[in-house]
Amino acid sequence: MHDGYAKTTIRLASIDAPESAHPEKGAGKVGQPFADVARQRLRELLGNNEIRAVCVEQDRYERSICELFVGSVSVNRQMVADGMAWANQAASGRYLRDKSLVAVELSARQAKRGLWSAPAVAPWIWRDSCWKQQICSIPAH
After folding, report:
1. With helix as H, strand as E and coil as C, how does 11-58 read?
2. Closest CA to 124 of 34, 25, 16
3. Minimum mean pLDDT range among 93-97, 112-116, 133-137
4. Would you state the pLDDT for residue 128?
């Protein structure tokens, strides 16, 4: 707790960004291209601004699942629009609370913004193929 605020870990609702490397969790947890760029873009969007979090639930890791806003701007939506995250369509869209993000992602893909400027593998596929099966290649489009 600091100045009346408690630190909490959240997961951004409806989106999934490129995975960072996690060597502390074991060998083979390599990161995806654009992971560092996406993290930096998130920092830029949040800045030192007042952030409003609209949280809908907690995940199995006890993280709050939230949509973040800086003023009226949805940070989650902006990350997808900038090509820094996917509309989370893992598990047949089970985690996609904001279905309109699919169109936002398509627009970013068509404009080749951010991670769409190169071949890209969705994080939910990366976690399975690279981290579990140790097949970390990136297929061509």
Report:
1. EECCEECCCCCCHHHCCCCCCCCCHHHHHHHHHHHHCCCCCEEEEEEE
2. 16
3. 133-137
4. 81
Pair of tokens at residue 69:
């806003």
Class of domain 10-132: mainly beta
Which residue from 60, 65, 122, 63 is spatially nearest to 91, judged by alpha carbons? 122
Cα-based distances in Å from 116 to 41, 59, 81, 138: 15, 28, 11, 13
Looking at residue 63, what DSSP letter applies?
-
Give the residue-averaged pLDDT of 124-139. Answer: 74
Give the C-alpha separation, 13 to 124, whole Å.
14
CA distances (Å), origin 84, targets 38, 46, 91, 135: 5, 14, 20, 23
Q: What is the mean pLDDT of residues 84-93?
A: 93
